[in-house]
Design goal:
The chain is of the alpha+beta class. The chain is about 60% helix and about 15% strand.
């Protein structure tokens, strides 16, 4: 059943707010996927705080115009697109969508938005290969901690050697007495 004008206006309004809040947006065409597969994709996206909306291209055009984003959805294939909006981790929508796309080739990644600028599907796939924020922070902490561990090892080696010399001297004194 088609949506009424009021429902469409509400959808556009919600989409404008979501576009303004989202850190990254991935656009995909899921034509050819089964309902179970789309449900699995939505569950994975929800776990990562990524909202999945299904909208017509005309509504997407209107929402982009109202949000101040220069984009024409008419250039995309099909009539309906999946809009995956990431609010938490900036790269999560790309990672999840690309990973899902590898297992389900019927879905096509059409592109996305990063900082309100359109990026093509290839760029979305490149972003999907980047490590997450948590992984990068762990690497930085590991890089900082590594020299400190080395310093502790070197310093403890000298103390260990001193203790061994003192123990040997003590044993020598106890055997000579």
């Amino acid at each position: 059943m088609p949506k009424s004008r009021i429902q469409k206006e509400q959808t556009v309004k919600e989409l404008v707010e979501a576009i303004k809040k989202a850190k990254m947006i991935v656009l995909a065409d899921f034509k050819g996927l089964k309902v179970k597969e789309v449900t699995v994709l939505r569950q994975e996206l929800n776990k990562a705080q990524v909202e999945c909306l299904v909208v017509k291209k005309t509504l997407m055009n209107r929402a982009c115009k109202d949000a101040g984003v220069d984009f024409d959805a008419k250039s995309l294939p099909g009539n309906i697109i999946s809009v995956n909006l990431g609010f938490g981790d900036q790269i999560a929508p790309a990672k999840i969508t690309v990973t899902f796309n590898k297992a389900h080739e019927a879905m096509k990644i059409l592109g996305g938005f990063l900082e309100n600028k359109f990026i093509d599907a290839t760029t979305v796939k490149v972003f999907a290969t980047l490590p997450s924020r948590e992984e990068l922070l762990a690497r930085v902490v590991g890089s900082i901690a590594s020299p400190l561990r080395g310093l502790v090892t070197v310093l403890s080696g000298n103390l260990r050697g001193l203790v061994q010399v003192l123990n040997a001297y003590k044993e020598k004194q106890s055997t000579t007495s």
